[in-house]
């Protein structure tokens, strides 16, 4: 079943990219798809692609098991046990950071992150970056995202059953541009936004799903307990926005009103490696990657990160697919 779905993904998006095949897919005929069916398929595919990021990022890997009462058991992924997340213990209790040195080091990282957030807010109030500076910072971040290598801890990557479906060289994530290219393609969010374009198209062709998706995007993006590890009453807006926009940046999507210098200020390299792995190669995610960033944060806070990555990943895919459908209609 999974193999069939993945094969459909390959054919489907190949058709979307090439105009003549895109037209053939919805051409009037007995065996062709209607536009509502096409949008329905797009939403389903984007949902399952993004869900894989959350599942592997949170250490959940359900397998069929006839010996259990419900037929499903949860197994550890690369020594990544979902029970750790359920207990919501602080990361410093994990074996990798249990030493006094590790705790002190992670505490200093937390304080440094909070200081950078405070400084960014102060700098924004004092003086805003020029449009030219913001253009330069986005291009720099976009190029650097191509150089972030996923699966940095290859010694821990264990072959899983899903690998048989993703090792085909013709299928899988590909960077939106080749390394070394001077002019990288950019999807300007202002030209095709979810709020102004994607939402209305989806709602018109797939009744009410636009409202449900929009509510989900907004809920996850705005979700906060105003805490960072042991600190309370913290405004995490800047950090949440950096996480969401970095995922879109990896897919070549740019927001003209966002200063991408904030991404480099707030997201350390180990976190960028984790983000790229979870959003682009989720099956490679390991517990060591999960533990390597924000070591003082609670598991619930890291699960919130995974939720943000999942929704950003889904919205990015929807924007590209819905823009292709809009172009077909016009």
Would you write up a description of this structure?
Residues 103-137 form a coiled coil. This is Sestrin 3. GO terms for molecular function: L-leucine binding; oxidoreductase activity, acting on peroxide as acceptor. InterPro entries: Sestrin. The protein has 330 residues and is mainly alpha-helical. Helix content is 59%, strand content 4%. The protein has helices at 2-17, 19-25, 35-57, 82-87, 100-126, 131-147, 163-166, 194-205, 209-222, 237-250, 261-266, 269-280, 287-292, 299-329, and strands at residues 62-64, 72-74, 187-188, 227-228, 231-232, 253-254. α9 runs antiparallel to α14 (299-329). It starts with a helix and ends with a helix.
Total helix count?
Answer: 14
N→C terminal distance: 35 Å
Helix content: 55-70%
Structural class comes to mainly alpha
| Low-pLDDT stretches | 1-12, 14-18, 68-79, 86-102, 152-159
- Read across the widest sheet, the strand sequence of neighbours is 1-2
Mean of residue pLDDT values:
75
Order of helices and strands: HHHEEHHHHEHHEEHEHHHH
- Give the number of DSSP strands: 6
- CA-atom Rg in angstroms: 21 Å
Main sheet makeup: 2 strands, antiparallel
GO biological process, one term: negative regulation of TORC1 signaling
Keywords: Coiled coil
GO cellular component, one term: nucleus
InterPro entries: Sestrin
Describe this structure in a few short sentences.
The protein is mainly alpha-helical. 59% of the residues lie in helices and 4% in strands.
List keywords for this structure.
330 residues; mainly alpha; two-stranded antiparallel sheet; two-stranded parallel ribbon; 6 strands; 59% helix; globular; disordered N terminus
